[in-house]
């Protein structure tokens, strides 16, 4: 693999591959750093397995010793009857809705679960530094390796890394990982899933190596205004002798693999110790990372010892400047930018929190299509792959700490977040908490002061904020300890807070909380549904139109983060059972746009936008009755016609849009938008006939045959004239063949109790979604057929491409 492909793979997929230099370089060759996926071939047991009751002196003595775990934690435990699964995995989404379960978890039973995996290490690995990496387990877990407890994790959103070098076996003897997951515990008041829902890795390195998350390379401008990349590389030595003749070489490459700058320095690191090597790379006229052109660079850090390469790591970065001001808001690359953001939890229809990386890409692209430019990770750090996607796609990120706590354990989690994420150009804000009870107290101020200090110790290039919902007018509060004041649902206080803290920048860190259900245009609380006209703001929030107006008309408010971009499981407020999902989203759980998607698109994008609601398929007893018609548009005026007859032309308010009361008559509703007297946009809504045929629209035409790539397929029905029927709620059955599988189904109904796994799903207001995933190491054609009673079926084919496989640890499941 050449260096260009190596860089691109690292940037685009977030995987770090082994590097081998050829002898033509004039250096000694050496395999270095292997980062191998551990995602395949786990054994899973849903439920808890009790440990043997300890009786007698001998049992008590043995139980207290390393390497002698009992029960399901023992390497000798028989797990051959357990189910074989691949990661990422969320067992909660596989469960049926249950009225006895917690409503915040979408009425899904979580409980306990066990995972086990065996693997072998070559005798050639003896002497290497070996590390297990777990990117996220919901919620708490205990990890045993070869019968010894090595880790207990008390946060479901952080990665953790385990040095297993002293415990590893080599050759024919099997190594065993056993993990007990406690998903009874909750960290949040939303759906958190259950299980090992992010990626897992085995990393092999030289005893002297670059530490995990150990390279910090954030481009900045120096005191003379010139670009430099200060590089800090943390070296570790887990070997038995001091490494004293080390050289750290750092090279910057652009997005096409061209070498831009290089530097090197001598170093040493003692036994079982660390050392930070620091270098600077001057750069002239780099390509700037922006929302429109998210140019990325790669920093390759190589560790040498006497001409032998010990370790190598590629880190991506981007050249951009960020600045907040107290009077005029936020600046990206010295250009004013209003933050048009959304808050989001991480679950998606059909897959729960085990979201394939490609589905994260799909969600981000839908938000950009709407005009959003910022994403708040609510209320926890996201996956590394998600941040890679934000870097590539061009989306600003508020990265948020999960637990508000300054005890050593939780400060350690904050430090982990900063170290792992600080190279991402997409991140522009660190948030240390969300709506904490102590936010308006001196205790809260003191905690944020300490947390901010921790952040600034590790990263001085970004701003620290906290999402406050109250207490900013108290004498001592967190506003006095942050760089940017974050305000949740406090639009009534914008002016007074600005007056109280005239030198501190302000942003709306969370607002709106308006309830809408896709395709519903009548609020029916008995059916747990809300209309889509942007009228049902929660008591603590506003409608979308009111919330954005308050932000847009105040230059000192940097922007907003709307609650939420997507619907999510849990929090079915203001309802309970049988409602099981939140309706705050601008899009539903599948990513299907609601009407307010087009409302924000009209307010946030520069191209012509015009969308009419509602559908025009009303029952016969509605004829002659007034129907509320709303146009979401950025045109100055709109003409509305019914069956070719002009109803009226109305001016458009850029915040409130424009509405009519139209007596219903089947046919064609047509809107034409005008700006400066010229036609700029048009939208037609027609009364359709009954469904006669199915249709499926894949998001892409190909899948990579690596077993990870996934894509959503939109399912709908058409009438005899080929028009989508927006009121159809038909049951659909799917048949799949070829090198792919259905990993999830959804339809955006926040009250649906249908299974999200399997081969059946009903349309909801005309739409459903199937998520397809490729199979590992296979190529060919996936064929998916959709069938419904009395309806013409539809078949699509997706090409699965032969691609280089993700380097992985071999599986042993017998």
What does this protein look like?
The chain has 814 residues and is mainly β. It is built from nine helices and 47 strands. It has an eight-stranded parallel β-barrel with strand order 24-25-26-27-28-29-30-31, surrounded by four helices. A six-stranded antiparallel sheet has the order 3-2-4-10-7-8, with no helix packed on it. Strand 21 (322-325) and strand 22 form a beta hairpin. Helix 3 packs parallel to helix 4 (384-393). The longest helix is centred in the middle third of the chain and has 17 residues, at 442-458. The chain is globular and about 90 Å long. The relative contact order is 0.09. Residues 1-30 have low confidence and may be disordered.
How many separate helices?
9
Cα end-to-end separation: 34 Å
Give the structural class.
Answer: mainly beta
Q: Biggest β-sheet, characterized?
A: 8 strands, parallel, barrel
- Our estimate of the beta-strand percent is 35-45%
What spatial form do the alpha-carbon principal axes imply? globular
> What's the total count of β strands?
47
Strand order of the largest sheet: 24-25-26-27-28-29-30-31
Assembly annotation: single chain
Our Rg estimate from Cα atoms comes to 28 Å
Query: Uncertain regions: pLDDT < 50 for 5+ in a row?
Result: 1-30
Bin the helical content: 10-25%
Mean pLDDT over the full residue set: 94
């Amino acid at each position: 693999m050449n260096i260009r492909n190596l860089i691109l793979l690292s940037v685009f997929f977030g995987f770090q591959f082994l590097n081998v230099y050829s002898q033509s370089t004039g250096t000694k060759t050496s395999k270095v750093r292997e980062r191998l996926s551990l995602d395949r071939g786990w054994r899973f047991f849903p439920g808890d397995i009790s440990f043997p009751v300890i009786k007698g002196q001998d049992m008590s003595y043995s139980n207290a010793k390393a390497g002698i775990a009992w029960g399901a934690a023992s390497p000798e435990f028989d797990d051959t009857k357990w189910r074989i699964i691949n990661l990422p995995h969320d067992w909660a989404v596989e469960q049926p809705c249950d009225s006895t379960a917690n409503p915040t978890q979408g009425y899904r039973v979580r409980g306990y679960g066990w995972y086990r995996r065996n693997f072998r290490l070559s005798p050639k690995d003896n002497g290497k530094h070996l590390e297990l990496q777990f990117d996220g387990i919901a919620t708490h877990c205990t990890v045993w390796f070869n019968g010894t407890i090595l880790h207990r994790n008390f946060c479901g959103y952080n990665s953790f890394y385990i040095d297993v070098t002293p415990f590893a076996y080599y050759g024919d003897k099997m190594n065993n990982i056993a993990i007990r997951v406690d998903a009874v515990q909750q960290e949040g008041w939303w759906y958190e899933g259950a299980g090992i829902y992010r990626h897992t890795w085995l990393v092999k390195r030289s005893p002297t190596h670059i530490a995990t998350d150990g390279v910090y390379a954030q481009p900045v401008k120096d005191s003379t205004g010139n670009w430099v990349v200060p590089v800090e590389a943390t070296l570790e030595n887990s070997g038995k002798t001091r490494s004293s003749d080390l050289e750290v070489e750092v090279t910057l490459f652009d997005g096409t693999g061209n070498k831009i700058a290089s530097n090197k320095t001598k170093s040493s690191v003692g036994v079982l110790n660390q050392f930070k090597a620091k270098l600077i790379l001057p750069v002239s006229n780099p390509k700037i990372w922006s929302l429109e052109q998210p140019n990325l660079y790669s920093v390759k850090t190589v560790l040498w010892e006497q001409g032998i390469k010990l370790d190598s790591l590629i880190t991506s970065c981007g050249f951009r400047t960020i600045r907040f001001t107290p009077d005029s808001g936020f600046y990206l690359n010295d250009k004013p930018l209003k933050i048009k953001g959304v808050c989001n939890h991480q679950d998606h229809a059909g897959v729960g929190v085990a979201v394939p990386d490609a589905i994260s890409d799909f969600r981000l692209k839908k938000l950009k299509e709407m005009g959003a430019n910022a994403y708040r990770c609510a209320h926890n750090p996201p996956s590394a792959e998600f941040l890679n996607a934000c870097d590539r796609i061009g989306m600003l990120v508020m990265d948020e700490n999960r637990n508000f706590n300054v005890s050593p354990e939780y400060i350690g989690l904050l430090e982990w977040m900063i170290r792992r994420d600080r190279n991402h150009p997409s991140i522009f804000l660190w948030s240390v908490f969300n709506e904490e009870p102590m936010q308006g107290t001196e205790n809260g101020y003191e905690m944020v002061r300490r947390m901010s200090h921790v952040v600034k110790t590790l990263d001085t290039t970004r701003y620290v904020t906290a999402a406050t919902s109250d207490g900013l007018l108290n004498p001592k509060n967190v506003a006095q300890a942050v760089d940017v004041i974050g305000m949740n649902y406090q639009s009534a206080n914008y002016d007074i807070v600005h007056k109280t803290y005239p030198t501190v920048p302000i942003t709306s860190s969370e607002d709106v909380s308006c309830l809408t259900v896709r395709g519903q245009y009548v609020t029916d609380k008995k059916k747990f549904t809300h209309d889509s006209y942007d009228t049902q703001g929660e008591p603590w929030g506003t409608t979308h139109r009111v919330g954005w107006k308050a932000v847009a008309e105040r230059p000192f408010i940097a922007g907003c983060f709307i609650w939420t971009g997507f619907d999510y499981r849990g929090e079915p407020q203001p309802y309970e059972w049988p409602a099981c999902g939140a309706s705050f989203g601008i899009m539903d759980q599948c990513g299907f746009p609601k009407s307010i998607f087009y409302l924000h698109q009209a307010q946030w994008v520069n191209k012509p936008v015009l969308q009419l609601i509602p559908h025009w398929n009303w029952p016969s007893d509605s004829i002659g009755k007034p129907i509320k018609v709303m146009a979401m548009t950025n045109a100055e005026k709109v003409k509305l016609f019914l069956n070719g007859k002009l109803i009226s032309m109305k001016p458009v308010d850029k915040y409130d849009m424009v509405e009519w009361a139209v007596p219903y008559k089947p046919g064609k509703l047509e809107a034409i938008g005008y700006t400066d007297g010229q036609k700029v946009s048009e939208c037609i809504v027609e009364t359709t006939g009954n469904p006669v045929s199915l249709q499926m629209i894949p998001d892409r035409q190909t899948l990579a045959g690596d077993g990870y790539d996934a894509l959503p397929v939109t399912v709908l029905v058409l009438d005899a004239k080929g028009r989508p029927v927006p009121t159809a709620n038909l049951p659909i059955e799917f048949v799949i063949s070829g090198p792919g599988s259905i990993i999830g189904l959804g339809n955006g109904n926040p009250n649906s109790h249908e299974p999200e796994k399997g081969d059946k799903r009903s349309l909801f207001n005309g739409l459903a979604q199937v998520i397809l995933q490729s199979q590992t190491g296979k190529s060919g054609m996936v064929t998916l057929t959709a069938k419904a009673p009395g309806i013409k079926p539809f078949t699509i084919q997706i090409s699965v491409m032969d691609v280089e496989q993700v380097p992985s640890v071999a599986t042993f499941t017998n």
